[in-house]
Automatic annotation (TrEMBL):
GO molecular function, a single term: ATP binding
Organism classification: Bacteria, Pseudomonadati, Pseudomonadota, Gammaproteobacteria, Pseudomonadales
Listed InterPro entries: AAA+_ATPase (IPR003593), ABC_tran_Xtn (IPR032781), ABC_transporter-like_ATP-bd (IPR003439), ABC_transporter-like_CS (IPR017871), ABCF (IPR050611), P-loop_NTPase (IPR027417)
Region (Disordered) residue spans: 530-557
Record-annotated ABC transporter domain positions: 2-246, 310-527
Keywords associated with the record: ATP-binding, Nucleotide-binding, Repeat
Source organism of the structure: Halopseudomonas sabulinigri
Alphabetized Pfam families for the sequence: ABC_tran, ABC_tran_Xtn
Protein origin, superkingdom: Bacteria
Protein name, per record: ATP-binding cassette domain-containing protein
Composition skew (Basic and acidic residues), residue ranges: 541-555
Length: 637
């Protein structure tokens, strides 16, 4: 178990933990929560032995193997599958010693090492690594690409696969879903649920936490507070405690007022009834949970657009894709004011392609896109973080958009995104990914959009900022198209789902739970289709060529049969030798200390014999397959 007693942890002048206590039992799956800078990553470093406590104790079993997700990649020339296999350091050590033994032609040592490789499941390692990569969205071809060929987000997926590949008793994962799409997250949930060791997980994805963990450790007030249950249960428990504070009620009432305004305004309108009902459900949930976020530093809204157009966008008979190669065909859609749509679909199906095309950053291959006279798009995509001016501060970024606005007004607005004090005047180049994402959202919110196109807006955002974004989107009265791996955000802010799959965009009339089942069936169908041979790729052979080939095969038939018979005799001999060794190993006295050398020698002979049998069996089967193939060709003639 992990035992933390009276722990004090300090980084420079900042005290992160003070007299903190915690006990975690082997096999538990635990989510670690806390505000940025509370000490979550430092606690991980302490468990890995990279930090020493400033007071108290932190202990865990000495023989535990610890795996963690690295944040950097050094060897860019390594093939992806080899990079993942490098996560299993013992495997690599056995393979290195095997190579040395082969060079030295040390037969006895080779036998021992092959036995060690088999006991470590080394013969299946390559297949397991490729399975991990496939689950995280890599294609078969990408497994053979160099690490340097991938973007930053995909390199982080490689780091995650490497951590999962490493045999471990304690797995430490820091924001593993940040660069994953919903497909990969659902796969990772299944993998982690079946992980047999102890899991400690930092994540800001509430649905992911609910699916994986059964305890929450909240770093708050320099203490480690343990809650039973997943994130939703933690939020309810904490809300009940904080609801006693008057400030919680005041903030809750302010949030409810935003929602009730919308409901009162549109509930009676038939065209808005569905949206109002959705907001009502969200309001009920928010009423229960908002006090849990009373200490959030974020409070903002999207400024309302002065004018609307109906429709805002009209896409007709469009082909969407890259460099003339369509990914989506015959796309026909309209976006009206107030539409709130969540985009679902498998990895690579075209969700981002659709949003880029609507935003105008990706030209249509064919078709027509009409935009309303008063259309004002607020477009968020991950590449926008890179387009921020690294030398400019948050205040300067916003001042460039509003040069005539009072500085204090700009400061107040940015304060809602937690850009306070000196931070508001510091250059963006020193900001974290989360801070850059908050600034990008702040710039969008300021510009009074009436259509939001959001492609994974929660990447890098912590739980409090996600909650504030949810509230802001609930109160936003414009139209919205959302791609997100955060199921809670989709569930709480959209009224309609569209499915992007098989080159089409269509309304999806089910819910997110049904989509999870649909996605599992889609994967099975893809796997089955991949397993089917492509009849069109089978080369055609004319009759003359067939007869000529059959004649050649007849000439080869006799020597192949002779070789197969010889292999059969050698296989029988090798099986006899293996049986002899296994009979000797059945002697119980052999396992006494005085017979250690004899036992080691016999184990080496057993491993060598097993390897010999396996090689001969494979050769024998291959020979008979060739014979069967030749005989079939002769019969066809």
């Amino acid at each position: 178990m992990i035992t933390i007693e009276s722990l004090t942890l300090q980084r420079g002048p900042l005290r992160l933990l003070d007299n903190a206590n915690l006990t975690l039992h082997a096999g538990q799956k635990v989510g670690l929560l806390g505000t940025n800078g509370a000490g979550k990553s430092s606690l991980f470093a302490l468990l890995r032995g990279e930090l020493e406590p400033d007071g108290g104790e932190c202990s865990l079993p000495a023989d535990w193997r610890i795996a963690h997700m690295r944040q950097e990649i050094e060897d860019l020339d390594r093939l992806a599958v080899d990079y993942v296999l490098d996560g299993d350091r013992r495997l690599r050590d056995i393979q290195r010693r095997l190579q040395q033994a082969e060079q030295q032609q040390a037969a006895e040592l080779l036998g021992s090492l092959y036995g060690e490789l088999e006991s470590h499941d080394g013969f299946t390692a390559d297949s397991r690594a490729r399975t991990l990569l496939a689950g995280l969205g890599f294609t078969t071809e990408q497994c053979e690409q160099s690490v340097g060929d991938f973007s930053g987000g995909w390199r982080m997926r490689l780091n995650l696969a490497q951590a999962l590949m490493q045999p471990s008793d304690l797995l430490l994962l820091d924001e593993p879903t940040n660069h994953l799409d919903l497909d990969a997250i659902l796969w990772l949930e299944d993998w982690l649920r079946s992980y047999p060791g102890t899991l400690l997980l930092i994540s800001h994805d509430r649905d992911f936490l609910d699916a994986v963990v059964e305890h929450i450790v909240h770093v708050e007030g320099q203490k480690l507070n343990l809650y039973r249950g997943g994130y939703s249960q933690f939020e309810r428990t904490r809300a009940e405690r904080l609801a006693q504070q008057q400030s919680a009620f005041e903030k809750q009432q302010a949030q409810r007022e935003h929602m009730q305004k919308y409901i009162a305004r549109f509930r009676a309108q038939a065209t808005k009834a569905r949206q109002a009902q959705s907001r009502l459900k969200a309001l009920e949930r928010m009423e229960e949970l908002s006090p849990a976020h009373i200490d959030s530093p974020f409070s903002f809204s999207f400024r309302e657009a002065a004018n609307q157009s109906t429709p805002l966008l009209d896409l007709d008979k469009a082909q969407l894709g890259y460099e003339g190669k369509p990914i989506l065909a015959d796309v026909k859609l309209q976006l009206a004011p107030g539409a709130r749509i969540g985009l679902l679909g498998p990895n690579g199906a075209g969700k981002s392609t659709l949003i880029k095309s609507l935003a105008g950053t990706l030209p249509l291959i064919s078709g027509e896109l009409k935009t309303g006279e008063h259309l004002a798009i607020g477009y968020f995509a991950q590449h926008q973080l890179d387009s921020l001016d690294p030398a400019a501060s948050p205040l300067l970024h916003l001042a460039r958009l509003a040069p005539d606005e009072r500085e204090q007004t700009l400061r107040n607005f940015l304060g809602g995104f937690d850009f306070q004090g000196d931070r508001i005047d510091q250059a963006v180049e020193h900001f974290s990914g989360g801070e850059k994402a908050r600034l990008a959202l702040a710039l969008i919110a300021w510009q009074k959009p009436n259509l939001l196109l959001l492609d994974e807006p929660t990447n890098h955002l912590d739980m409090e900022m996600r909650h504030a974004l949810t509230i802001a989107l609930q109160a936003f009265e414009g139209a919205m198209l959302l791609v997100s791996h955060d199921r809670a955000l989709i569930r709480d802010t959209t009224d309609e789902l569209w499915l992007v799959a098989d080159g089409k965009v269509a309304t999806y009339n089910e819910d997110l739970d049904s989509y999870t089942r649909w996605l599992a069936q889609f994967r099975q169908q893809q796997a089955a289709a991949a397993a089917q041979p492509d009849a069109s790729s089978t080369p055609k052979v004319d009759s003359k060529a067939q007869r000529r080939a059959a004649a050649e095969q007849r000439q080869r038939l006799a020597p192949l049969k002779k070789a197969a018979d010889k292999l059969e005799q050698q296989l029988a001999k090798a099986n006899d030798e293996l049986s002899e060794v296994e009979t000797l190993l059945g002697d119980s006295t052999l396992y006494e200390a005085v017979n250690k050398d004899q036992l080691k020698q016999l184990l080496g002979r057993q491993a060598s014999a097993q390897q010999r049998v396996a090689e001969l069996e494979e050769a024998w089967l291959q020979a008979h397959e060739e014979l069967d193939s030749l005989q079939a060709a002769l019969a066809a003639e």
